[in-house]
């Protein structure tokens, strides 16, 4: 959709009456573009532009907004974590994720952190003479994978990327060595993936929280549900498990979505030292009926060319 022309006067009036999110839809401009023009206008007119409505929800003006709210009355939210994409053919889980994104017509697709791996700029020292892909090659591989996802979903599907600890390496490294380049296009991870909205967490219907990580350890999924008071979907640990918790408030779920990466991928070989890994490859399907979450369902890699879902082996 082509962006609509808007004079400075009209922009100021719209921003102060309907706010940036509705402006983004009306003008066909991404929210980040609305905020950028707002900053330029504030310098020009010498005052702050603030939406008048107290109930207007806006995306915080920081590089990674705290929270994105999604409403899903009846439908599916697809969640995949820890792709750790390197150059090369897609993993079984990634091929299945693409297939499910096309067939389930989800309300939203959430890449729940660590889409990229970025070992070249890790804070950890190199291991021997290991040969890692360049940052450029990793970004290109990730772009190719996400462009396929963008083409598989419907036009109104919300695309969200919650920041993972590996993803954060990109901007952390630049902030440490070249802080004067802040705000310059290309120096922020989101600049390279413009159709994916970045955030720390996604809240669905105010009952389900999707974020890369919260509690750690083998019982993280259980502890996430108990300590957050919400159904909480996380990645990070690659373990693929569902832990329900019931109390006076009803039943909620702690879920580790597993990893879209292959647990035996080259990216993991050196630092795991060829030890056994309690990791499983797959992703998560969240289904909502009348706004209520049904029991979460894992899609698990079965063979190199198939996954298991709802008791069936599905070729990919």
Short summary of the structure?
The chain is built from eight helices and 15 strands.
Task: Describe the protein's architecture and organization.
- The structure is a single chain.
- The longest helix is centred in the middle third of the chain and has 18 residues, at 135-152.
- It is built from eight helices and 15 strands.
- It has helices at 8-17, 19-27, 31-45, 92-103, 135-152, 169-177, 220-228, 266-272, and strands at residues 67-70, 75-80, 108-111, 158-162, 197-199, 201-204, 208-211, 231-234, 241-247, 250-256, 282-289, 292-293, 297-303, 306-309, 312-315.
- Helices cover 28% and strands 23% of the residues.
- The two termini are 33 Å apart.
- The radius of gyration is 20 Å and the shape is globular.
- It folds into two domains: 1-59; 67-315, Metallo-dependent phosphatases (Purple Acid Phosphatase, chain A, domain 2), CATH 3.60.21.10.
- It is α/β, with parallel strands linked by helices.
- Strands 2, 3, 4, 5, 11, 12, 13, 14 and 15 form a nine-stranded mixed β-sheet that branches. It has a six-stranded mixed β-sheet with strand order 1-6-7-8-10-9, with helices on one face.
């Amino acid at each position: 959709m082509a962006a609509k022309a808007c004079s400075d006067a009209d922009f100021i009036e719209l921003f102060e009456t309907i706010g940036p999110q509705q402006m983004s839809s009306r003008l066909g401009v991404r929210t980040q573009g609305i905020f950028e023009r707002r900053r330029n206008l504030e310098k020009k007119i010498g005052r702050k532009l603030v939406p008048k409505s107290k109930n207007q929800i806006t995306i915080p003006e920081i590089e990674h907004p705290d929270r994105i709210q999604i409403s899903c009355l009846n439908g599916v939210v697809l969640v995949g974590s820890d792709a750790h994409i390197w150059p090369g053919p897609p993993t079984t889980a990634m091929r299945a994720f693409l297939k499910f994104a096309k067939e389930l017509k989800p309300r939203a697709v959430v890449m729940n952190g660590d889409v990229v791996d970025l070992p070249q700029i890790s804070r950890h020292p190199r291991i021997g003479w290991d040969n890692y892909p360049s940052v450029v090659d990793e970004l290109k591989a990730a772009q190719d994978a996400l462009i396929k996802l963008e083409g598989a979903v419907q036009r109104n599907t919300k695309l969200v990327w919650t920041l993972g600890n590996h993803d954060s390496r990109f901007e952390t490294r630049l902030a440490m060595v070249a802080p004067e380049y802040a705000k310059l296009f290309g120096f922020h991870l989101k600049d390279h993936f413009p159709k994916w909205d970045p955030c720390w967490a996604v809240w669905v219907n105010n009952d389900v929280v999707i974020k890369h990580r919260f509690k750690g350890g083998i019982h993280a999924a259980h502890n996430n549900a108990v300590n957050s008071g919400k159904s909480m979907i996380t990645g990070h640990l690659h373990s693929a498990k569902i832990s329900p918790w019931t109390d006076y408030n009803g039943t909620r779920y702690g879920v580790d979505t597993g990893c879209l990466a292959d647990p035996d991928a080259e990216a993991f070989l050196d630092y795991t030292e060829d030890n056994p890994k309690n990791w499983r490859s797959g992703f998560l399907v969240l289904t909502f009926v009348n706004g209520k979450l049904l029991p979460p369902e894992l899609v698990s890699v079965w063979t190199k060319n198939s996954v298991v879902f709802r008791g069936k082996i599905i070729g990919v």
